[in-house]
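Appendix C: a fully annotated inverse folding record. The material below is reproduced so that readers can follow the format used throughout the book. The structure is listed first as tokens, followed by the designed sequence.
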């Protein structure tokens, strides 16, 4: 099948997010503006106002209400969308738990930003990290094209009858949110066709006025355990679905991202850098330069944050000589960065090798080419048996 082609426009990451949601035809939108997400909410309102999107905009007084509205509308059978960032994500934390527990297939964009502690209107993935055990599927994207493509794929995943879970699409605030890039926008008819298989699946019953139904209760004994087990099982099933949907999207639109993880020059790599988000593009640039110097280095870009892509990571990293993990967040109470900590949990299945943790890119600090070059050099030295430092805070050195 010949890949479907769309029009190319130069868009900010936030505008791209709003346009992606528009293409998926949500029926209910509730979002509260917060830096650096505000443009998403504003643009969605503009689409509804000019008639290009037929949706109900619910004006709420805060993010907690926004998620409550989306959850309720989703349980009533509507397709919904919202977006938030940082304090907004934290403010809706209790409703994040309920939305996941009720198995409501909400799709939300989270524009990554530092969270409370020190007040920080700056970049970082700490907001995403603070919600990792909320029961949501969480995916991290690298650029604006991946934003639009992943939001479309997220509806196929969230509303799949075998999954029925909310999805958080994360992208780096202050980098992608305001960055203007060339983006190929799929045609509306092609997005409709890609999402059409959802209409052929059994659907959860809608809430009908006057009819009795149940969607949440105080769990007791085995009923609660069974619900949790089914939720956990759906997350496990989602891993293969992510790969399958990405492959299908690639066949349909000509763009794919590897599913759970993306690998770059890992086939013959002796060492690997594990990274996520917008920094992955810079890592690829450094890898090309280092390979010209004779260093066999590759990239594993972690796209799926929850559920954890254990099997794919083991497959990609097994047999390598050393791994360096770049985290744009902290794991308070543990010395490694969050993604490094989780990688160390599966280290016995990967094999004996040095795993080096690097903290970088907090508070609007760039993860620069020289920083990444240093990471590659140190990981390469560790692979050759030289002494290395377990954890390195790059901006502090």
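Designed amino acids, in order:
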């Amino acid at each position: 099948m010949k890949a479907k082609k769309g029009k190319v426009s130069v868009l900010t990451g936030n505008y791209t997010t709003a346009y992606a949601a528009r293409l998926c035809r949500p029926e209910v939108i509730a979002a509260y503006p917060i830096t650096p997400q505000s443009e998403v909410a504003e643009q969605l309102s503009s689409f509804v106002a000019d008639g290009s999107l037929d949706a109900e905009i619910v004006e709420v007084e805060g993010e907690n209400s926004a998620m409550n509205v989306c959850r309720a509308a989703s349980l009533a059978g509507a397709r919904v969308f919202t977006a938030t960032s940082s304090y907004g994500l934290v403010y809706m934390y209790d409703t994040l738990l309920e939305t996941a527990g009720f198995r409501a297939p909400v799709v939300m964009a989270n524009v990554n930003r530092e969270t409370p502690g020190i007040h920080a209107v700056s970049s970082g993935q700490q907001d995403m990290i603070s919600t990792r055990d909320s029961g949501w599927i969480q995916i991290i994207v690298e650029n604006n094209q991946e934003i639009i493509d992943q939001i479309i794929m997220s509806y196929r995943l969230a509303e799949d009858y075998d999954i029925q879970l909310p999805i958080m699409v994360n992208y780096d605030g202050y980098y992608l949110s305001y960055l203007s890039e060339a983006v190929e926008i799929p045609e509306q008819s092609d997005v409709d066709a890609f999402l059409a298989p959802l209409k052929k699946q059994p659907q959860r019953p809608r809430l009908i006025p006057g009819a009795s139904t149940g969607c949440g209760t105080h769990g007791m004994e085995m009923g609660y355990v069974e619900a949790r087990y089914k939720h956990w099982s759906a997350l496990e099933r989602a891993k293969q679905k992510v790969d399958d949907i990405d492959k299908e999207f690639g066949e349909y639109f000509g763009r794919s991202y590897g599913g759970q993880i993306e690998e770059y020059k890992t086939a013959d790599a002796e060492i690997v850098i594990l990274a996520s988000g917008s920094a992955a593009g810079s890592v690829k640039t450094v890898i090309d330069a280092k390979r010209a110097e004779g260093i066999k280095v590759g990239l594993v870009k972690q796209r799926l944050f929850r559920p954890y892509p254990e099997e794919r990571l083991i497959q990609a990293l097994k047999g390598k000589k050393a791994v360096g993990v770049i985290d744009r967040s902290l794991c308070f109470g543990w010395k490694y960065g969050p993604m490094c900590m989780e990688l160390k949990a599966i280290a016995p299945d990967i094999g004996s090798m040095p795993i080096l943790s690097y903290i970088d890119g907090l508070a609007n600090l760039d993860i620069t080419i020289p920083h990444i070059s240093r990471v590659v050099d140190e990981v390469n030295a560790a692979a050759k048996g030289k002494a290395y430092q377990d954890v390195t805070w790059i901006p502090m050195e």
